Amino acid sequence: MLWTIIVIIFILWLLGAFGGRVFSGFPKVGNWVHVLIVIAIILLILKLIGAI
Fold it and tell me: How many helices (DSSP H) and strands (DSSP E) are in the chain?
């Protein structure tokens, strides 16, 4: 379940980071891109050390 959340957050981060370049009508998300990747990294680290 946690891996699914990590993958979804990572995909959203990719869309936010590169979506404006691929699709011209894609909305700009600004700093939310960085917030999503930080959350994904924290969840991944917690999963790897077994805290969750």
Answer: 2, 0
Nearest-angstrom CA–CA distance, 39 and 28: 19
Which residue is listed with tokens 């700009």? 28
Tokens for 18? 């590169």
Taking the C-alpha atoms of residue 41 and residue 34, their distance in angstroms, rounded to an integer, is: 11
pLDDT digits (tens, 9 = 90+) for 3-45: 888 788 888 777 777 766 666 666 666 667 777 778 888 888 8
Across the chain, which distance is largest between two alpha carbons, in Å? 41
The Cα 21–Cα 35 span in angstroms is: 20
